[in-house]
Each structure stands twice: as structure tokens, then as C-alpha cells.
Amino acid sequence: MNFQNTKLFISAGDIRQFPAHPIPQIALSGRSNVGKSSLINTVLGRKSLARVSGAPGKTITVNFYDVDGKLFLVDLPGYGFAKRPASEKARWSALTDGYFTANKNIDRLALVLQLIDLKVGPTADDVMMLRYLAAAELPFAVIATKTDKLNKTDRTKALAALESHPDIPAGTKIIPFSALTGEGRDTVQNILLGLAKK
User: Is 123 helix (H, G, I), strand (E, B) or coil?
Assistant: First the structure.
């Protein structure tokens, strides 16, 4: 699979715009500024395919990236950003919720990559999302982002805290990731390769 052969297929602001293509979907979930755009660019080997916003919370669409015609990488709107009007927050919530609950193609969702800032740890919004994924029995893995911001001791403690977190089921894959150093890129690429349409 050619990761660089990726294009933004659609930025969907309404659930009726979600594509119906018969290829697997891997969704990226996480709070604003957790590093979803950086992960997309790093994993796909593209510098600015996904725009890294200087102002967290700007993504108010569900962005479907077509990766070599083999899968959709689905960038969900970031949550947990306080400096936005309640009406906009409600729209983001409805769009993300709609992806999981009103999506006619939800059976094509192969995996959710739940991004958590390793330095910050799971926020209340992250915990809410983890509980939702577990309750809905959706398959997910945890991406622990920004590992380069911790020293070795703090990193070990933070990863151990994720592994023992009550809302992360035992055995859940936890992938340390850094867009700066490239740590975790190969692991995420291998996950995508394993889930791609053959």
C-alpha cells in the first residue's frame, strides 16, 4: 500500500455526506490539540496533508482521507476545547456522535485510534470517550502522543498509568507516538496495512 498516495476525499459537515465506499475505515478520536493532524501527516509521509492548526478546535468536519483506495482514515472533530460557543460544541458533538450512531456504514469501521496526550494523561473527556467505545463494543487502540515531551522516568510512569487505567481494558494495544521523532509511525502503518482492503 502506498501511504503517500493519499487524498482528502471529503470534509463532511453533515452525516449525509459520509461516503459509502466499501473499504475499511479507521477513525482517529481525541481532544483538540492532541496531535491527530500531526499523526496523519507522519504516518502517511506527507508534510501538510492534514493541516496542523495553531488554534485548537478548528476542525468542525469529519475528514475522510482515501489511502491508496484501500481504506479511509477518518479524522473526527477534536473535543474538549472550552473556548467555543455552546452551539458549535453541540454541532461537533452531534457530528461525532452521528459518525458512530447514525452512520449507515458503521460496519466498515475497523478500528478507532484513541489519541491521548501522554504528558497530560486521560482527561475527563477522554474517559467519557473510552467508556463510550467500550459500551458500544467498538474496537480501539490507544495512541499515546507527544512522547518526546517526557523524560524516561515520567514516560515509564505515564505509560504504566495508561496500562492500568480502569477504562482501558486489559490487553488494549497502547502505542507510544511522537510526530517529532517518528516513534510509533511504523507500528501505526502496520496496523493500517493489516486492516486495509486487500
Answer: coil
Domain boundaries, given as residue ranges, for the chain: 6-195
CB atoms inside a 10 Å sphere around CB 116 = 29
Residues 6+ apart with CB under 8 A from 26: 71, 72, 73, 74, 109, 110, 111, 112, 113, 191, 192, 195
Q: If you classify domain 6-195 with CATH, what class do you get?
A: alpha beta
Of 75, 66, 71, 72, the closest CA to residue 6 belongs to 66
* Backbone dihedral region for residue 10 (phi beyond 0: left; psi -120 to 50: alpha; all else: beta): beta
Q: Are strands 6-12 and 62-67 parallel, antiparallel or unpaired?
A: antiparallel
For 87, the grid coordinates are 452551539
Give the three-class secondary structure for 92.
Answer: helix
Which pLDDT tens digit goes with each residue over 96-155? 888 998 888 889 999 999 999 999 999 999 999 999 999 999 999 999 999 999 999 999
Tell me what pLDDT residue 84 has. Answer: 63
Distance CA 152, CA 167 (A): 25
Q: Is 161 helix (H, G, I), strand (E, B) or coil?
A: helix
Residue 107 CB burial class (10 angstroms; 0-12, 13-18, ≥19): exposed
What is the pTM for the complete model shown? 0.91
